[in-house]
Amino acid sequence: xxxxxxxxxxxxxxxxxxxxxxxxxxxxxxxxxxxxxxxxxxxxxxxxxxxxxxxxxxxxxxxxxxxxxxxxxxxxxxxxxxxxxxxxxxxxxxxxxxxxxxxxxxxxxxxxxxxxxxxxxxxxxxxxxxxxxxxxxxxxxxxxxxxxxxxxxxxxxxxxxxxxxxxxxxxxxxxxxxxxxxxxxxxxxxxxxxxxxxxxxxxxxxxxxxxxxxxxxxxxxxxxxxxxxxxxxxxxxxxxxxxxxxxxxxxxxxxxxxxxxxxxxxxxxxxxxxxxxxxxxxxxxxxxxxxxxxxxxxxxxx
Length: 302
Fold this sequence. Notes:
Layout: E1 2-8, H1 16-23, H2 29-37, E2 41-43, E3 46-47, E4 59-65, E5 80-84, E6 88-93, H3 110-117, E7 141-147, H4 150-161, E8 166-174, E9 181-185, E10 188-190, E11 198-200, E12 208-217, E13 220-227, H5 234-241, E14 265-273, E15 280-284, H6 289-301
Parallel strand pairs: 7-14
Antiparallel strand pairs: 1-4, 2-3, 2-4, 5-6, 6-7, 8-13, 8-14, 9-12, 10-11, 12-13, 14-15
Helix pairs in contact: 1-2
Keywords: Isomerase, RNA-binding
Domain RNA-binding S4: 14-78
Protein name: Pseudouridine synthase
């Protein structure tokens, strides 16, 4: 079932997403942009893009899907909440935990745990992703920012888009990287070989990753990475692309690798401007125990 909203342009000018944001006070800018992206906004039966310039008399139709019915149950997962105030939460996600429910993971996710521990979460995303501003992969551990209200969500999402937030990762990769630092700029899109995977492809979305060597071991290198963009599996794809795949990675790494619980990749540092106070906040999370243990074993081998 869908509802339909009709908006007739009177004297407004400019981009359609801005005009709709002014007219539809009960809907957030992010929600309007998502409708446009999903092809649910049309004029004369033709879906339009967000940069469409409106004309006087335009009749804009918006198909609003009914919220999907999904029972989201709070679960006591004893999440590691690093920081919390009235607007934002920073959580240290353990390796092996999915961020939000999906067909294959209806429960046991970060969202289920958040619903138990946090009183309020933003409503901008669909019903299965309350509060979730950005994601990290199931087998990647580390820091995530979560929004407790829609205003905070929009502000944090804008920082991600404008590349003003700080996200640093630590990864253990195969091979000994000879140089001290590097910059990988290669577009990422869905793999033409395997639809479950991402790959560096012509016409993909721009993606930039910076890395710096922290420690070299026999056949492995520990690196720190900083993201400029946040594409799906970006670090894992980029490191495979330059032939230094992340150790333990079941999708992008070699079969013979270090024993662990998936890829040795940890979101260790997260920084952003507080959406209400304007304060610059930076958080850091220690490496998981299995990661520390593996590094110690590699150090003892050298």
